[in-house]
Design a protein that fits this description.
Residues 98-110 have a biased composition (Basic residues). Residues 94-116 are annotated as: Disordered. The protein is 41% helix and 11% strand. By secondary structure, it is α+β, with helices and mostly antiparallel strands. The protein has one domain (12-62, 69-115). It has a three-stranded antiparallel β-sheet with strand order 2-1-3.
């Protein structure tokens, strides 16, 4: 059997600073385009190397936990981590995440203005 040249994409769950699910995206690339964030930073946040990036929390969808569109706006990050068996994840305060998100957006805004 011939080996695929690329890995299959993984669904990425996006949680806001208040730790509520706000999106289910089909791949890391789509997530980076959506958030304007760095692809590697998002990957690190999904795997647990980073707590968050760009003011959002990211997780790969777990095959043992079913997440549907009805969960958007209702599923809590800590609840999802508990369902996945994650016990050693860290979280930031809502206020800290708001500051990080604001700083991330202002950096991106300046970068876009410099490109024009």
């Amino acid at each position: 059997m011939m080996k695929k040249p690329f890995k299959d994409s993984k669904l990425v769950l996006v949680f806001n600073g208040a730790q509520v699910l706000i999106g289910i995206l089909r791949s890391l690339n789509t997530t980076a385009e959506y958030s304007g964030g760095n692809l590697q930073s998002i990957s690190f946040a999904c795997t647990g190397l980073y707590i968050s990036t760009g003011g959002y929390y990211y997780r790969y969808a777990n095959e043992n936990v079913e997440v549907s569109l009805e969960d958007i706006g209702a599923l809590q990050l800590k609840e999802f981590d508990k369902l996945c068996g994650e016990t050693n994840r860290s979280y930031r305060s809502v206020r800290d995440m708001a500051h990080r998100r604001k700083a991330h957006h202002s950096r991106n805004k300046r970068r876009r203005e410099d490109e024009d």
